[in-house]
Amino acid sequence: MHTDICVIGNGTIGKTTALGLAQAGFRVSLLCPPVPPAAESAPATWDLRVYALNEVARDLLVSLKVWDALDAERIAAIDAMVVIGDGDHAGKIEFDAYGAHVAALAWIVEHRNLDQALDAALRFSRDVTLVTGSVDQLHIDANCTRIDLADGNSLTAALVVGADGAHSWVRNYADIGIDYRPYGQRAVVSNFDCSVAHQGAAYQWFTATEGIIALLPLAGQRVSLVWSAPDALATTLMSETSQQLAARLTALPGQPFGQLQPMVPERVHAIPLALIRAHQFVAPRIALVGDAAHVIHPMAGHGMNLGFGDVAALLRVLSGSDAKRDCGEARLLQSYARSRKEEVLMMQVATDGLQRLFASQFEPLRLVRNLGLNLLNKLPVIKRRLMSHAAGGMK
Q: What domains does the chain contain, in order, with CATH numbers?
């Protein structure tokens, strides 16, 4: 089989990449690893995996005609965000969409909701061929790539897009090095009903001893938990009942959602956290997108947004007439890499720096942190710039 572009990896970013490239006029093969069929969840359940999508991500999904295919009743807009420090004199900073001059700071979308909309769009895309298989070898020459599959079949393409996640086979094959640093934390995720309506507000607590706790609004009177907890605490949280976890969250200082109750069925999951920085985004006839290129701390909820930013940038670069002649040309790939370098680096430095800053238990530093939060809260110009960036102001 020959296509213009082969996308390896069928996660959210891989599917979005394949769909966008097909709509841009390319013939695309989407290589999906063979996986055992997952048990279908009851429609009433809420996914533990949610994304806080910013304006850039939303605009991309709108342009691909995916956003309007989502179940709108299961999407919650974040209209305000409150960040609270720790200690007896905890600092606080508040953001709101009105102050940022945007429709919303972000939109909370369940993984399953987005995945089903992408699958439906791909089924109707004549220029995307879904191929199930595992990569065995990748051969690259001056004009083409050949992907040999474990079952003996082969694919050829002018460009390979590695969208195969944090442990990317494509990245490893291309001999692209990475900086890797585990945070010694796990993201504990779960969903809860709340006795007080969230009013579209998200809350984050930055603590030195218990990590970073985020409660994000879900549609209706529900919230989603993302608790970036130190490993020892994460082990404790996972050993407790959902009711005990709910009691911990109910007792958080300044918690505005009232009494929290575990949603039925009660589910809690934990995900190890690490920083991954690929040394480069591209190699000959290879481009990396999403977690294959970068993994950041989830404190700001921007890991998926960076991935959508990669897709949008790649589409912009490959939409020119030159790309129709050879979409794997080195000049085009370098243009894509340059367009992503600054934003990704800024987000990695910001999230990693904040994680280090708030993980310190040094008492004078804790005082400075709280003073800093309170000072930022009184500087509307800087707050507006921070909100604009968080909402996707860098396009």
A: 5-38+113-179+275-352 (3.50.50.60), 50-111+180-273+353-390 (3.30.9.10)
